[in-house]
Design goal:
Layout: H1 2-17, E1 21-22, E2 28-30, H2 32-35, H3 40-44, E3 48-50, E4 56-59, H4 64-75, E5 82-91, E6 103-112, H5 117-133, E7 139-144, H6 145-154, H7 159-170, H8 174-180, H9 184-190, E8 193-194, H10 198-205, H11 210-226, E9 233-235, E10 248-253, E11 262-268, H12 272-275, E12 283-289, H13 290-299, E13 311-316, H14 320-333, E14 338-340, H15 347-356, E15 361-366, H16 367-371, E16 374-379, E17 385-389, H17 393-398
Parallel strand pairs: 1-5, 7-9, 13-14, 13-15
Antiparallel strand pairs: 2-4, 3-4, 5-6, 6-12, 7-10, 8-9, 10-11, 11-12, 15-16, 16-17
The structure holds adenosine-5'-triphosphate (ATP) and magnesium ion.
């Protein structure tokens, strides 16, 4: 938990410094919240059941649908744009394997109330900042689902069919994809990937189609903002399993993390809030796979800087109560980790325990010293010891820590 807290605190610091505020949502929701737009992959893997009242509920598989519900019920009158973030456990009945669990954690942000490319750029930049703040090397891939979806619509597929095609892409079901869409332009486009120059190539492929070209301009704007700030790759084949995405989508991978190397996924969802009965409200966000981030840190041999005890207080002879009191005072007054010996071990055993814990100082409360209102303080690093007055024991440490 020390290591996990380290990652948690680091991520929240970066996220909060961009103006995002923490929210917390319930672990379970009505199942129907996820049935409409969360996508086949999530629906197939729901932990869904009836409660004693016969309600259909499920453990949350992801947070964005809950955020949309929460927004409509509680947050819709707040000033916009609204910047919120969360950290918590999610549940999916998947086949467990390395870095894929049935209970896992996500840390995510949602930026609600802006359809600007600046909003897209902000969340993408923020995800990259989080990676960089831990020194993690990553690969960021960008796409705009609006380009693909509107192209499919101009090719006479309806919206439901377009969503299905994107889902096939996400799941890598290429044979079915070829069967479903015959358009050469579509397949040329979805295979296109590379640096900023592929934007021109894409424009050539879809030059006959107005709406997709318009969406492509949004992607161009985004790239213009991000240029020089973060490294990215454009990949028109990036789809996301969550059906509610309408615009920019992106993912972040860490090399050498194995088969499950995607640590972050996100995108723009401009219709979800309206679909759930709220006002038309554009939004964009992402979720980090917290457990995979942990793995990436461990693999990179990240220095977690473990907590150490600074002081151990040990009573020798009939001084247990005084030792207890001394430890209490030090714990209350110092910004230090103070341990109290409570196993009645001999002094030498206590000191070797303390050295093993890399404790810096031992406060030895002995009967003789106590009679003179003193204790012995031993520096376990230098082995030097000296006498210190009990009344000002806090002051003695303040100068030395
Ligand atoms: P994947 O393709 O790995 O299944 P996903 O597309 O289902 O990921 P999202 O639903 O976008 O992922 O969730 C965002 C992040 O949460 C992922 O990038 C991943 O890091 C993490 N994640 C998703 N499912 C799991 C899981 N079962 N166990 C651990 N982490 C997960
Ligand atoms: Mg998945």
């Amino acid at each position: 938990m020390w290591e996990r807290r380290h990652l948690h605190d680091g991520l929240t610091k970066v996220i909060e410094s961009a103006g995002y505020r923490r929210i917390q949502m319930p672990l379970f929701e009505e199942t129907r919240l996820f049935m409409e737009k969360s996508g086949v992959e999530i629906i197939e893997n729901l932990y869904a059941f009836k409660d004693k009242g016969g309600r259909n509920i499920c453990l949350r598989p992801e947070a964005t649908a809950s955020v949309a519900r929460f927004y409509i019920q509680e947050l819709r009158n707040r000033p916009k744009p609204l910047r919120i973030y969360y950290h918590g456990s999610m549940y999916r009945y998947e086949r467990p394997q390395k870095n894929r669990y049935r209970e896992f954690f996500q840390t995510g942000v949602e930026l609600i109330g802006s359809d600007s490319s600046l909003a897209d750029a902000e969340v993408i930049w923020l995800a990259c900042r989080c990676m960089e703040s831990f020194g993690l090397k990553y690969i960021l891939r960008l796409n705009h689902l609006g380009v693909l979806k509107s192209l499919l619509q101009e090719l006479n597929l309806n919206e439901a069919e377009a969503v299905e095609v994107v889902s096939l892409m996400d799941r890598g079901l290429l044979d079915e994809l070829e069967e479903k869409v015959s358009s050469k332009e579509f397949h040329k486009l979805r295979k296109l990937r590379g640096g900023r120059s592929v934007l021109e190539k894409a424009a050539k492929i879809i030059k006959e189609f107005d709406k997709p070209l318009e969406k492509l301009d949004e992607l161009k704007n985004l790239c213009g903002i991000l240029e020089g700030l973060v490294e990215y790759e454009i990949d028109f084949g990036v789809a996301r399993g969550l059906d509610y995405y309408t615009g920019i989508v992106f993912d972040i991978k860490v090399e050498d993390l194995g088969a499950q190397d995607q640590v972050c996924g996100g995108g723009r969802y401009d219709n979800l809030i309206q679909l759930f009965g709220g006002p038309q409200t554009p939004a964009v966000g992402f979720a980090f796979g917290f457990d995979r981030m942990m793995e990436a840190l461990r693999q990179g041999e990240f220095e977690f800087g473990y907590v150490k005890n600074d002081i151990i207080v040990v009573g020798v002879g009939d001084t247990r109560i005084e030792a207890f009191k001394t430890a209490s005072i030090l714990r209350e007054s110092l910004d230090a980790v103070v341990e109290l010996e409570i196993l009645d071990r001999s002094l030498s055993k206590t000191l070797s325990h303390a050295s093993a814990q890399k404790t810096r100082f031992a406060v030895i409360v002995g009967e003789k010293e106590l009679a003179e209102s003193c204790v012995t303080v031993k520096d376990l690093k230098t082995e030097k010891q000296e006498s210190a007055g009990l009344v000002d024991i806090v002051g003695w440490f303040e100068g030395r820590m």
